[in-house]
Write the structure tokens for this entry.
Amino acid sequence: MTGRVVLAYSGAPRGAASIRALAAGHAGGVVALVLDLGQGVDLEEAHARALDAGAARAHVVDVRDTLAREFILPALHAGVRADTGDAMAIALARPLIARTLVDIAHMEAAAAVAHGGTDAGRAQLDTALRALDPALRILPPAADAPGTGVPTVRATLWGRLIEYAPAGTEGPAESLYWWTRRKAAAPASAAHVEIGFDAGVPTTINAVSLPLIELIESLSIIAGQHGIGRIVDVNGRPGAPHRAHEVPAAVVLQAAHGALEAAATGEARARATRDRNAPYAGLVLSGHWFSPARASLDAFNHEVQKQVTGSVQIEFVKGELAILACRPAVPSEAPAALPAS
């Protein structure tokens, strides 16, 4: 087949087989795209592995700040979480992966793109890709799936997803958890943090200003060490892998932001925002991030965030989180008028 193809490459060794297979079938060559989403991959090693496998070029792009500001923040403002309580850390990265794939495909004059992942993940990416550039061909999934029964781990700045073979009601092996401790292994002494927000954006921890990426990473470490943010979902489809999530920063920021929003804007407006959580989550999970519906919800939430300034004091102890104090800069004294939606 003629033409060039851009492959979203995770950097995992098994993905090298996908590069070889695509290179053998495309005279125009394969361009690998490796994204730094905060997943902890050795980027230099991934770059070298892609070239060794036969990629004509390999682009390595740090998109952590874009992920945090353009995808995680809007989801935080919408209070987005799945029914299981997880923060959809992987699903939120997929529209960014799609957008970057399209950008690199245009740069490389490629007529096709390819990617791997789970069935649901592929569907989300395909939907986003078609919304961005219907003319791009999307090649069949690359054969990079692990063997049956082998646990898989995917991660972004916002959290880790572990998929593993069901074994009763037990979670995955403890060695698969990297970001959180078991509640029983967490310190007995409590930890206290105060998170400052400016117009809905978390900006400080204990009065120390931090870039958003560093703030999320710091909260992941602090909260995870105290057993916060470990969620095990054992109610999957029969025969399907079970899932465990490590989302310590997401759990903390969702709790803090939700409390401050209610205190700063009034319960009526906070309830109106919560009512939009499920539709927003549905758009993320269906791959319709690049849609007028999502843009409309973001416009509503953006207006609400203008009042969400202040600080929230939180305690962590043995896997439990408690809001100790909530200090909005301008407390809500009366029900506020809702922005048009």
In short: The two ends are 48 Å apart (CA to CA). The chain has two domains: 5-62+89-138, 158-328. The chain has a mean pLDDT of 89. DSSP finds ten helices and 14 strands in the chain.
